[in-house]
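Lecture 7 notes: from sequence to structure.

We start with a single chain of 319 residues. Read the sequence below before looking at the structure.
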Amino acid sequence: MERIYAGVDLGGTTAKLGLFGSGAELVEKWEIPTRKENGGRQVIPDIAASVREHLDKMRDGSVRLAGAGIGVPGPIRPDGYLEVCVNIGMRDMNPVKELSALLGGIPVQGGNDANVAALGEVWQGGGKGYKDVVAVTLGTGVGGGVILDGRIVAGSKGMGGEIGHMVMDWNWKGPDACNCGNRGCLEQIASATGIARHAEMFLAESSEASLLRDKEKVTAKDVFDAAKAGDALAQRVADHCMMYLARAMSYISQVVDPELFVIGGGVSKAGQYLLDLIRKHYDPMIVLTKEKAKLALATLGNDAGIYGAAKMAVDADRG
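Now the structure, written as tokens:
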């Protein structure tokens, strides 16, 4: 009987699910809605029911679920306890133990979604072939995941990798505080939202001609597209924001010394231009070694979470 592993990436709108074979191949993937009513109490039962339904359809039941992994958008402790998941409303629960019980007692592993996605990129994505990797996700916010010796560094309270809330600009001039309550967090500068906000600030402070002035609402994509087209103001915005990201990465390097940074999220679609800009600022900040960490783009996209979750299950099953 073939051994199958389930990977779950729980999000605020949908839960992404995948079934993987023992050779790391993705057999099937799908999504289900995340029902957030009643404090998200139906979320884990919905996931378990959907996994069972898809397993029953595979080869007339000739497969066995050997383990599962789940990534959740919040700090999850080593025992699976989740104090709070603000985007879903889940509080004071243990999704790992609950999912295990609903799937017949199989081993289930859990982790923060950004850390789990980082593991997925190391397993089968942009970080494949490396063991010491830091993944940086530049989307609506800034997420991070630290993988050392092939394993997630979650920390004692599941807070490992929360790089988006490193305060980077102590002279923050923006009008708002970060969602965490601090001001000048990396998330406010280098996320897609932060880049767009800085473009608006740069435009307001200057009368300089720019392709960005033609936009009703500037996006990070607009900034990088204009920068690539030679727009001087857009280039300064991108340079400013990525300088702060490179500075944060230099701090991280001094602590965990990764072989590689994998850059993902929507902003990473700027491609090599983005990597070159980060490299321009990062390299001079690393002075204790001639060998700098490599930079690469993430390749798994929205599937990174299910891959990482399945990898946790595979590792646990193999001991």
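The first strand starts at residue 2 and ends at 10. Keep this in mind for problem set 3.
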